[in-house]
Amino acid sequence: MIVKKARSGKNGSEALLQPSATKRRELLVFLTASFKPANSVNVIVYYHGHYVGKTENFKEFRDHYTSSELIAAVQDAGKALALVVPDLGANADGGDWTSSDKAAFDSLIKDTLLIAAYRSNELRSGNTLEDPSKDFQTGKKVESLELGALILAAHSGGGFAMRRVRDLGSGHAKNLKEVWMLDSLYDDAKRWVSWAALSGVAVHNIYTKGPDSMHAPYLNSSKIYEPARKGEAMLIKDPPPVEPPNNYLRPAIESSVNHHHVPGKFIGGLIRKSSNL
């Protein structure tokens, strides 16, 4: 992992990384202003959508209004956490992040926990450190923080990358508490239902509705589904077919908000309402 850029201020801190998992993609780690030195940190991994014709690279994507709205909403929610955005490419295809096995995702979490430890070190020192990877008191190598609650979120085409991560699995499956679909569910609803039933992870679906919408209102319910059995495995191969009953997942929300504004409009409320954060 190489820290390419880092900045901090009253609105939290950001680090742009050359991650351990790939040299072809970047990783943005954002720590909210509420983040304080601790032994663990809650993490939201956000899979962005397509930005073809909108921006030419990941830096410009960071400054695009959809990203600015998202980060502002996360900050305004007022909770201490890390928001992690892997560069999925202009077509949100995932690339190296989703191409082989769970190693890339677990490496993403490892890098995030280390960046959080560096920031925690700086906050304890009260200064911006030339080398935050070394403990400001002892000079020894800073140890990673522990992972708290893990949440996966995706917007638009990022839902396909999130689906791939779901199927590849993770060594951090026991930490996964929620999945937030921000207008990112297309044609995989039944498998998500099966997966949620077996894993016990809460799945939230926010979708826009219109004559041209491809985003499925399929995960819709008026009750909270309490699965009969829960497993720690994030990886579930060939889950049994589940015909959705009337009470299986978190209530879906139909949104009249423009598709591109869904993340910024809803992620703050999801953070505030979550009992896991």
Helix content: 25-40%
Strand content: 15-25%
Total DSSP E strands: 9
Q: From the helix content, strand content and strand pairing, which structural class follows?
A: alpha/beta
Q: Low-confidence spans: pLDDT under 50, at least 5 residues?
A: 211-249
SSE order and pairing:
Elements: E1 2-9, E2 12-18, E3 27-31, E4 40-47, H1 58-63, H2 65-76, E5 82-86, H3 103-125, E6 146-155, H4 158-168, E7 176-182, H5 189-199, E8 202-208, E9 253-255, H6 262-273
Parallel strand pairs: 4-5, 4-6, 6-7, 7-8, 8-9
Antiparallel strand pairs: 1-2, 2-3, 3-5
Helix pairs in contact: 2-6
Summarize the structure in words:
The protein is of the alpha/beta class. It is built from six helices and nine strands. It has helices at residues 58-63, 65-76, 103-125, 158-168, 189-199, 262-273; strands spanning 2-9, 12-18, 27-31, 40-47, 82-86, 146-155, 176-182, 202-208, 253-255. It has a nine-stranded mixed beta sheet, sandwiched between helices. α4 links the parallel β6 (146-155) and β7 (176-182). Residues 211-249 have low confidence and may be disordered.
Features:
277 residues; alpha/beta; 6 helices
Summarize it.
Helices cover 27% and strands 22% of the residues. The chain is built from 6 helices and 9 strands, in the order E-E-E-E-H-H-E-H-E-H-E-H-E-E-H. The chain has helices at residues 58-63, 65-76, 103-125, 158-168, 189-199, 262-273, and strands at 2-9, 12-18, 27-31, 40-47, 82-86, 146-155, 176-182, 202-208, 253-255.
